Automatic annotation (TrEMBL):
<feature type="transmembrane region" description="Helical">
    <location>
        <begin position="133"/>
        <end position="155"/>
    </location>
</feature>
<protein>
    <submittedName>
        <fullName>DUF1295 domain-containing protein</fullName>
    </submittedName>
</protein>
<dbReference type="GO" id="GO:0016020">
    <property type="term" value="C:membrane"/>
</dbReference>
<keyword id="KW-1133">Transmembrane helix</keyword>
<feature type="transmembrane region" description="Helical">
    <location>
        <begin position="101"/>
        <end position="121"/>
    </location>
</feature>
<dbReference type="Pfam" id="PF06966">
    <property type="entry name" value="DUF1295"/>
</dbReference>
<dbReference type="InterPro" id="IPR010721">
    <property type="entry name" value="UstE-like"/>
</dbReference>
<feature type="transmembrane region" description="Helical">
    <location>
        <begin position="187"/>
        <end position="204"/>
    </location>
</feature>
<keyword id="KW-0812">Transmembrane</keyword>
<feature type="transmembrane region" description="Helical">
    <location>
        <begin position="6"/>
        <end position="24"/>
    </location>
</feature>
<feature type="region of interest" description="Disordered">
    <location>
        <begin position="253"/>
        <end position="280"/>
    </location>
</feature>
<feature type="transmembrane region" description="Helical">
    <location>
        <begin position="60"/>
        <end position="80"/>
    </location>
</feature>
<feature type="compositionally biased region" description="Low complexity">
    <location>
        <begin position="260"/>
        <end position="274"/>
    </location>
</feature>
<keyword id="KW-0472">Membrane</keyword>
<feature type="transmembrane region" description="Helical">
    <location>
        <begin position="36"/>
        <end position="54"/>
    </location>
</feature>
Length: 280
């Protein structure tokens, strides 16, 4: 199957998955199940692309395995964190807005939009099985980016979950481990992972350069749309002292904390203020 056909097949596959998930969300009265499917959706796209391609090479199979590891880990973590706790407050706020037909709104804005973003972001995954290139130095760099990204994402999630599980640390900020060097190690990890997939794609064929639109869109979402900017706007309105953590800690790319800023809470008790849980 050629690349244009794969694009169509994946568009239909994603649309079908999102429609089924939307119907399930209506029955459960919980739109936040879309977050759990986010990682799994890319796993589906990767496998559909590889299995439908005429003759996928080693790089395509390797990338599909990497996507499967990443997507299943993310879905498992979000399921463990979210299931049994009711609908995420972001979706509840949308649901409770007066005069809104939430069923239709969620179909278009929640499930439809995420499905569209998924299709665009996954362009490197969709084109790779149609390329004939072999393993190269760029491939190795792509795998290294993926490995470092997965480490940041998984370790960041683990450190945050362990921190929040300690009742004595409620109302404090996680500013140790990876969180000492970046306020969003999990988002930075996602950033590296998607640019790693892109490097794998162009290592197979430099003509795939234009699929950079996929990781570029993901980077934009992480930094300005549903990631850093959105999360920190809400944190600061609820927790004014979080501003101190912002002043001394890099927002995204890991960097040593600023020596000019010292938390007033750290000075008195050795800790800082609360870090919000990771949204999807």
């Amino acid at each position: 199957m050629e690349f244009p056909s794969l694009l169509l097949v994946n568009a239909v596959t994603i649309a079908g998955c999102m429609l089924a998930l939307w119907l399930l969300s209506l029955w459960l009265k919980d739109a936040s199940i879309v977050d759990i499917f986010w990682g799994l959706g890319f796993v589906v796209v990767a496998w559909v692309s590889t299995l439908c391609a005429a003759s996928p090479g080693t790089l395509a199979w390797l990338t599909t395995i990497l996507v499967t590891i990443w997507g299943c880990r993310l879905a498992g973590y979000l399921a463990w964190r979210n299931l049994g706790h009711g609908e995420d407050k972001r979706y509840t706020e949308m649901r409770n807005k007066p005069g809104r037909n939430f069923a239709l709104f969620s179909l278009v804005v929640v499930f439809g939009l995420q499905g569209t973003i998924m299709w665009i972001v996954s362009l490197p995954l969709q084109i790779l099985p149609t390329l004939s290139g072999s393993f190269s130095a760029i491939s190795a760099i792509g795998i290294a980016c993926w490995a470092i990204g997965l480490t940041f994402e998984a370790v960041g999630d683990y450190q945050l979950a362990r921190f929040k599980a300690n009742a004595s640390q409620q109302g404090e900020v996680l500013d140790q481990g990876l969180w000492r060097y970046t306020r969003h190690p999990n988002y930075f990890g996602d950033f590296l992972i998607w640019w790693g997939y892109y490097l794998l794609a162009i290592s197979a064929d430099s003509g795939a350069w234009w699929t950079a639109v996929g990781p570029a869109l993901m980077s934009f979402c992480l930094l300005y749309f549903s990631g850093v900017a959105h999360l920190e706007q809400h944190i600061q309105t609820r927790r004014p002292a979080y501003a101190d953590y912002i002043r001394r800690t890099s927002p995204f790319f890991p960097w040593p904390p600023s020596p000019q800023q010292t938390s007033s809470i750290e000075s008195s008790s050795g800790s800082a203020h609360p870090q919000e849980p990771r949204p999807s």
